[in-house]
């Protein structure tokens, strides 16, 4: 069996640190290790339209923004096929056939969809397209015969739904599709990075993000106003590091090199945490350190972004060429699917 990696992001805004630790970093690592047959990364505009159908401009503008984010974090179009979902003609057709294999009750049970429905306040007027998006995600994954899907933990129910569809399809029509496996970061805090508000996960739709393209001042402002431990009022007070967003970010982002460079009084995060928990360590010092760590990560990303912003035609060409290549693969899968379903009348 071929090893095929596939992941995507919704063009609903720019990519943020949650994407970086939850998925992007892993993708670049996988890309550079080269231990795969094919790797696809796509911009899920069709999916973004399911809950942003009345804001097409936002989705269109975000497509190129996400592409810029991809290239600036180091995805390499010579190694990875980067494409736009709506450009792949086989996907809506596959979705249509898979819809027969899933019940409404099953879609409503999906915990990620459930919490998103609550967030979006659809009430009883849920657009069919939105509820259907896990099925369209199954089409994305299976169209490319993906076996490995690197994601954050909110996407596990989607990959599980895809596996069910694959099993059901193969049972009825004969072995045609492959079951994918979700891959999550080893570091647990990276699977669902909280937002700067400390409440829900960092999410484009919630406005609680530090974006990869944020400039230095913006990052500083966001970090300095971050949520910490509400009971850590005076410097001498013992503080909590577990439900403290600043420490959670340090857990996700910092390493011993950062300590050597920016906070040599401490050897590593454990030492810093111990001091904070004992009391005598102020929030401002910890936040300043976090700011340095984030800057260390974002500076090279910003620089690369600038190059692609100045060469935007290049970015469009990468997407166009990637979509052309992706279509070839997906067309081939659709052909096999139709053959299995006995609807290949004129072949
Ligand atoms: P939206 O609010 O529009 O849904 P989002 O910020 O949730 O946007 P997505 O495009 O839905 O981002 O997610 C893309 C990928 O990034 C998925 O694999 C998802 O699991 C991962 N991801 C998103 N947010 C986080 C987060 N806060 N921590 C870890 N991974 C995340
Ligand atoms: Mg999301």
Describe the fold and architecture:
With 347 residues, this protein is mainly alpha-helical. It folds into two domains: 4-191 and 312-340, 3-Layer(aba) Sandwich (Rossmann fold); 214-305, Orthogonal Bundle (Tyrosyl-Transfer RNA Synthetase). It is 56% helix and 6% strand. The chain contains 15 helices and five strands. It has helices at residues 17-33, 45-52, 56-73, 90-99, 104-109, 111-120, 128-131, 133-143, 156-173, 216-224, 245-253, 256-262, 269-278, 283-310, 312-340, and strands at 4-9, 38-43, 81-84, 148-150, 181-183. The strands form two sheets. The protein has a three-stranded parallel sheet with strand order 1-2-3. It has a two-stranded parallel ribbon with strand order 4-5. Helix 9 (156-173) links the parallel strand 4 and strand 5 (181-183). Helix 4 crosses helix 8 (133-143), helix 8 crosses helix 9 and helix 11 crosses helix 14. The longest helix is centred in the last third of the chain and has 29 residues, at 312-340. It is globular, with a radius of gyration of 22 Å. The two termini are 26 Å apart. The relative contact order is 0.15. The model has no long low-confidence stretch (mean pLDDT 96). The structure holds adenosine-5'-triphosphate (ATP) and magnesium ion. Residues 9-10, 12, 18-19, 22-23, 151-152, 154-155, 191-193, 201-205 line the site of adenosine-5'-triphosphate.
């Amino acid at each position: 069996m071929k090893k095929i990696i596939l992941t995507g992001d919704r063009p609903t805004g720019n990519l943020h640190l949650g994407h970086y630790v939850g998925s992007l970093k892993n993708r670049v690592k996988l890309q550079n290790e080269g231990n795969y047959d094919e790797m696809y990364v796509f911009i899920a505009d069709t999916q973004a339209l399911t809950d942003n159908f009345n804001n097409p401009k936002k989705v269109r503008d975000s497509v190129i923004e996400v592409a810029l984010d991809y290239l600036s974090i180091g995805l390499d179009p010579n190694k990875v096929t980067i494409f736009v979902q709506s450009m792949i003609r086989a996907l809506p057709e596959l979705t249509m056939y898979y819809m027969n294999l899933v019940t409404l009750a099953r879609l409503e049970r999906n915990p990620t969809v459930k919490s998103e429905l609550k967030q979006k306040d659809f009430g009883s007027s849920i657009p069919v397209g939105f509820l259907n998006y896990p099925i369209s995600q199954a089409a994305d994954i299976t169209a490319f015969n993906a076996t490995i899907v690197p994601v954050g933990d909110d996407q596990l129910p989607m990959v599980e739904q895809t596996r069910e569809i694959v099993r059901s399809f193969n049972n009825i029509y004969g072995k045609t599709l492959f079951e994918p496996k979700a891959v999550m970061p080893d570091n647990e805090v990276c699977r669902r990075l909280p937002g700067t508000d400390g409440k829900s996960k960092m999410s484009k739709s919630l406005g609680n993000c530090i974006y990869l393209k944020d400039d230095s001042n913006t990052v500083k402002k966001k970090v300095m106003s971050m949520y910490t431990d509400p009971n850590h009022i005076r410097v001498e007070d013992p503080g909590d590091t577990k439900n403290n967003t600043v420490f959670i970010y340090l857990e996700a982002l910092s390493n011993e090199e950062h300590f050597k460079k920016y906070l040599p009084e401490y050897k590593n995060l454990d030492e810093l945490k111990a001091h904070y928990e004992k009391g005598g360590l102020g929030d401002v010092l910890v936040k300043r350190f976090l700011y340095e760590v984030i800057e260390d990560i974002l500076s090279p990303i910003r620089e690369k972004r600038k190059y692609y912003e100045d060469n935007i035609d290049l970015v469009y060409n990468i997407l166009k060429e990637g979509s052309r290549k992706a279509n070839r693969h997906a067309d081939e899968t659709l052909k096999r699917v139709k053959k299995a379903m006995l609807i290949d009348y004129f072949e």
